[in-house]
Design a protein that fits this description.
This protein has 372 residues and is an alpha/beta fold. It is built from eleven helices and 17 strands.
């Protein structure tokens, strides 16, 4: 069985799965055991689900050690905690609390994240509450710090909630529930679940290097500014475009490509089915979700914008926005690809990008008036 973590000296490095997904039960069936060490400080790093960062940090806190997080490609950070949001909701009856974090796509320094979270965590008295639920759009630093502090404050059960997995028990003092996925308690639902009766999945399509990821980030930011509960999902399972890659690519494109190639996996029906399932899950949690969709297969010999079985991902989307480069027209080809799966009518807008690597400057070419 492949490992979801490796320990080297005082570093815990999370390992990628062949399908970019580890089932939460892995933290129980393949437990993370901290070996004896003379050091009192552990470093967490690697590409992993946020509940993995939270789980490892909780164990480190329980051991009485220190914990730091080193995120890959974390550059251009800002030191202003007001750029993020953090809410704490307490239920005195069940002695539980929900911590909802939203960094809103902004890269904050570690100190800014700690300052942001401490404003809420300091409201929780030590050894009074037993269950903490952590959720929101944040990075490994935020999730690890929240879980670490929760253990220090005496919480006996800590769960993380994600759109992919629902609730995951990442810390249980008795270890009996570790890795379990319990039902969401009723009192939590108003704080974490969507309000709209008609959630929308908006898919961003286009050829590689057309500016899809940059646009999806901008659209997701606008979604947040408008007050819609939502999420941005990178659906390129084989070679995703994480936020750090976009930032690193501006300063050192050669190095960025090396890292991205190293993290690439092969497409498979299992991976495509997994991504389709993740999109379906988004409907349960969010009013508006933005899917940054894969650009297809482009080689000297083959061009397939929706390769066989990739349509299972596309069919989960309510509306497509096509980004095309002015110097590389692609609308007619994307319409043909969508039409082959009876999806062309879901194309609601076509945006032309004259300089995908420059500041956003998109010209609307086609837009459907019927989509709201």
């Amino acid at each position: 069985m492949s490992e979801w973590f490796r320990i080297n000296s005082e570093t815990i490095e999370f390992q990628k799965s062949a399908v970019r997904y580890w089932h939460p039960e892995i933290i129980s069936s393949q437990p993370l055991m901290l070996p004896p060490t003379s050091s009192q400080k552990w470093t967490l790093t690697g590409q992993a689900a946020m509940w993995m960062y939270a789980h490892a940090a909780a164990l480190i806190a329980e051991a009485g050690h220190q914990c730091v997080v080193r995120l890959q490609g974390q550059i251009e950070t800002k030191d202003d905690p007001s750029l993020g949001q953090c809410e704490l909701h307490i239920d005195e009856t069940s002695h539980s609390a929900v911590l909802k974090i939203d960094l809103q796509g902004v890269k904050l320094t570690e100190q800014a994240i700690i300052h942001l979270l401490d404003r809420q965590l300091n409201r929780i008295p030590a050894n009074k509450f037993c269950e903490l639920y952590i959720s929101g759009q944040a990075n490994g630093v935020a999730y690890a710090y929240a879980a670490y502090q929760a253990v220090q404050k005496g919480f006996s059960l800590i769960c993380c909630m994600s759109s992919s997995d629902g609730l995951v028990v990442i810390y249980d003092r008795t270890q009996k529930l570790l890795g379990n996925r319990p039902e969401i308690p009723d009192w939590i639902k108003p704080h974490l679940l969507r309000k709209s009766a008609h959630p929308k999945i908006i898919g961003i399509i286009g050829d590689p290097n057309s500016g899809k990821s940059v646009f999806s980030l901008a659209l997701n930011h606008d979604r947040g500014q408008r007050g819609y509960l939502g999420w941005r999902l990178d659906c390129d399972g084989a070679s995703p475009t994480p936020d750090w890659y976009l930032a690193l690519n501006k300063n050192d494109p050669e190095y960025a490509q090396v890292i991205r190639r190293a993290n690439k996996v092969e497409w498979s029906p299992e991976l495509e089915d997994r991504i389709a399932a993740k999109i379906r899950q988004l409907r349960k949690f969010f009013d508006v979700a933005i899917a940054d969709l894969p650009g297809g297969k482009h080689t000297p010999d083959v061009t397939e914008r929706i390769p066989p079985h990739r349509e299972v991902i596309m069919k989960e989307v309510d509306a497509f926005i096509l980004i095309e480069r002015s110097d590389r027209p692609s609308e007619i080809f994307w319409r043909e690809a969508l039409s082959a799966h009876q999806l062309e009518q879901r194309l609601v807008a076509v945006l032309k990008s004259s300089d995908p690597k420059g500041p956003p400057d998109l010209k609307i070419d086609t837009i459907s008036q019927g989509f709201i």
